[in-house]
UniProtKB/TrEMBL annotation:
Its cofactor is K(+). The keyword Isomerase applies. K(+) binds at residues 62, 123, 167. Binds 1 potassium ion per subunit. Catalyzes the epimerization of the S- and R-forms of NAD(P)HX, a damaged form of NAD(P)H that is a result of enzymatic or heat-dependent hydration. This is a prerequisite for the S-specific NAD(P)H-hydrate dehydratase to allow the repair of both epimers of NAD(P)HX. It comes from Vitrella brassicaformis (strain CCMP3155). This is NAD(P)H-hydrate epimerase. Keywords: Isomerase, Metal-binding, NAD, NADP, Nucleotide-binding, Potassium.
Amino acid sequence: MADVRYLGQSESAALDDELMGPCGFCLEQLMELAGLSVAQAVQDLSQQSSMQIVVLCGPGNNGGDGLVAARHLFHFGHDVTVVYPKVGKKEWYSSLVTQLKESNIPVEESLPSSLASADVIIDALFGFSFSGAVRPPYDAILGELRRIQTSSGQPKKPTIVAVDAPSGWDVEKGPQGNGDAVIPDVLVSLTAPKKCAEHFYGRHYLGGRFVPSSIQRKYRLELPAYPGASQCVELSTGKKGA
């Protein structure tokens, strides 16, 4: 099989439009499947039966994926806290928050004091459609993530997992050296990797086992085979696509 193809911003948006148009999917359905993919990738990282996981969620679809992942990770047996400073405008986001609260999963507006001691931090702040400067309160959140990453006095640091596109990265060019970028340990690309992933060399997963064969052919995705019934597959580290 040829290398998995990496998509630019406009092509990624067009693919999503086709999934939710001619292909018959709805946003809520895709978000549920994407969030489950993220949760399974995180589960694959460790043999620990219970991890301390903090999920950082933005106001858009990327944040919605994070909310779904948080619910699944809770049901996988982990201790999960969600940080959700601004609830998305669509009613569906409020429903996702209700689902979390009904399971007594903490949903906070600000970072917990225990953030640095978490086993895993999931960055679900911004997706492939994000552009421009990172604004409050998210700039402070990314600043704290960078501080944790660069702290020399912390023997065990959290594993940072980015959803689809690491926050602060240009979706096509990767980290731009403007001080906003967080360099994650793990990236979970959704549907197909975005071009920014060409600049990522950690553990790289692909999730979103729902792409119709017609879309795979049209966009020449060359998606890998998913193992068994898994919703994610690990890609070769540091391998660039076409």
